[in-house]
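Section 3.1: Structural characterization of target chains.
Under the original work plan, the team committed to producing a structural model for every single-chain target entering the pipeline before any wet-lab resources were allocated. The record below documents one such target. The sequence was received from the expression subgroup and is listed exactly as submitted; it comprises 424 residues.
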Amino acid sequence: MATSLDYRTLFHQLPDNYLLLAPDGTILDNSDAHVQVSLLPRAQAVGRNIFAAYPPANPQSQHDLDASHEEVRRTRQPHTMPLLRYDLERPAALGGGTEERYWQITHYPLLDDQGELQFILQQSQDVTAATLVARRGEATQRALDEANERTRFILEIVPVMVWTTGIDGLADSFNARWLTYTGRSLADTVGAGWAADLHPDDLPRTVALWEAARRHNQPYQAEYRIRRHDGQYRWHLAQGVPRLNAQGDVLMWVGCNVDIDNQRKMVDELQHSIEQQAALSDQAYGNLQLAQQQRQTLLDLFMRAPAMISIVRGPEHRYEFANAQFMQLVPGQAPVVGRTVAEVFPEVVGQGITALLDQVYQSGEPASGSELRIELVDAQGQAREGYFNFAYQRFDENGQPAGITAYAYEVTELVQLRQALAAR
């Protein structure tokens, strides 16, 4: 015996969110799933206009729904709306509050035998979870892209020549400053191509030091001459460190080169001057020995004198980056990132340093100086006198001043020695 189907009951039990509308938008019925997700009893929805029963979140939402209904009425074809945000107000019995929800809504035309529109069936799919996951993924990707861009910016803006190698020891990247210095393309420099820019006399020793560092996974340091784009060979201090995984295996090498040609020339000139003074002096052998010790002390100072590199951001000059050599100036080597110059070195405020930073930041004109005298405080809290060669350069972002890069090296002992020689 045939069983009569209760289509209304069947419609109510459909496993999705369905809303049955008259062509004018009057609600005729909805599925149980729709009642549950909308948090509105069926009796309070049926017979009312859709916008009265479910007020739009904003005028744009109502416009999009109206446009979709009109598209179905006009074409008699299904129409899927753009993603719609429609938050739900939870009843007080369920704890109250608002739930952020996103919906993918499709309207289907139901036609009679003459092809006239009889009903509009709305299917609402809750895509909140997928939408929020996608947005978090986009936010994560944006943060990752920003971090990569920030790292790339720092590598390109710092006044040193930066390079990296793979685990095989072959160079795979150089920053723009290296390529500008040598005047050669990246394609000609990666791999072992960089060796073509070294002075032939320095190449065997440089390679031997590099292979020894790689063999023992130890920091690499060497001094060698690099040919500049104008053909001149200049001395550089090269330093590199391996990046290791948890098992101690090398993943890559990162290093940088600093032009120390001027320092070496000053050391040679001072060495020659000291030797002349010693040769012409009638002093005893003890004084000659002392001069030689002073010369060796000064030579060691300059040969190991590191470049001090830092980046400060904003008009308040807040540290964003400081390398290890720079940190040696900081009392107790306390962290500096996030602190201002005035906070890290309060003693320089009255010595014109912050005023000079203000001038560079505001005008955009670089500033440099040689043997600038500064009163500093050492790790024990004692005042000391220091002399520095330095260069300040402003960098911009989006056409606006963003911060200042600073490059310096200390020449205190050089100045004091020259003073002593002049007095002598």
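Residues 7-126 form a domain with the Beta-Lactamase fold (CATH 3.30.450.20).
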